[in-house]
Amino acid sequence: MTSRPSATDATPPLVSVVIPCYNSKRYLAETIESALLQTYSRIEIIVVDDGSTDETARIARSYPVHYIYQANRGISGARNTGILHCQGEYVLFLDHDDRLLPRAVEIGVRLLGEHPECALAVGEHQYIGADGRAIGYSNKHAAGRDHYLMLLEHNFIETPCSALHRRSGIALTGGFDESLEGAEDLEFYLRTARQSPWVAHEAPVAEYRLHESSMSRDAERMLEVSYRVLEMELPYLQGNPKKLRARRRGVKFVERQYGRRLTRELLGSGSLTTAGNQRKLKLLRRHYPLGFAAVLVCQFLHPKLLNLLLASQAHYSQRVVQARQHRESLSRG
What we know:
By secondary structure, the protein is α/β, with parallel strands linked by helices. It has 12 helices and 9 strands. It has 2 domains: 201 residues, Alpha-Beta Complex (Spore Coat Polysaccharide Biosynthesis Protein SpsA, Chain A), CATH 3.90.550.10; 114 residues, no CATH class.
């Protein structure tokens, strides 16, 4: 880890903000401007254009940024390219449709300066809609907790721009695994948390935009790759019942989240005899038996009644999770 700057250092450390983008003309200007409007003074902005065919290049080049174009490799490849070009002591990954709040970098740099043993500082974020209006708050409650254990249950960071990384920490753990498209963030965070402590705080630092394209990931792919990431963690959990239980909860979370989405895809697909749908059915049978049964039953059951049954199951599962979280908060308090 990089040692904490001394009080006599006149120049604050440089922070590299990496913005990976692909056909990002709709939101890119807002995203770049949120980085330019930081209260922290020393920032370099690296925009990695991952093979865009729209006006992304023109928009990026109209701002004082380091613009890099590459053939399409996916978001992990774009982030890894950004890492290679970083000059800063700290690195922040800012997705093309999200925004930083003005004090995001300032808060992160201060905390990492106060905690030189930590690889990253993570804060809260706000949810915004496609129009930029606030629609919720993250409520991670991550301060003072075991972050590796939390990650086994759920990727509580959600948006990468809520975390500021020490570049020496990234060098220690390595970059993003480009073979894990869709769950590369979770695997990267798990790998980092295994090797270095984190510091978490409760200040909002980012705005995570929820819109149609951000939530339209392939459920089949997400179920497969998220499960694979949690399988990859098993060698590091042996002999630790607490971590193994947390991982089992994480597996259930993944199976519910993407299994329900995959179930709805199949319910609306018509024929189940295509090769693709047969493959999805096998995945459901393995990871989400309730959805598998629902798809089969839908051949005989009225769709409205089936949706009611699925909604009831989802509501019950949510109440169970809320009850568990309430018990955990009482035990901590």
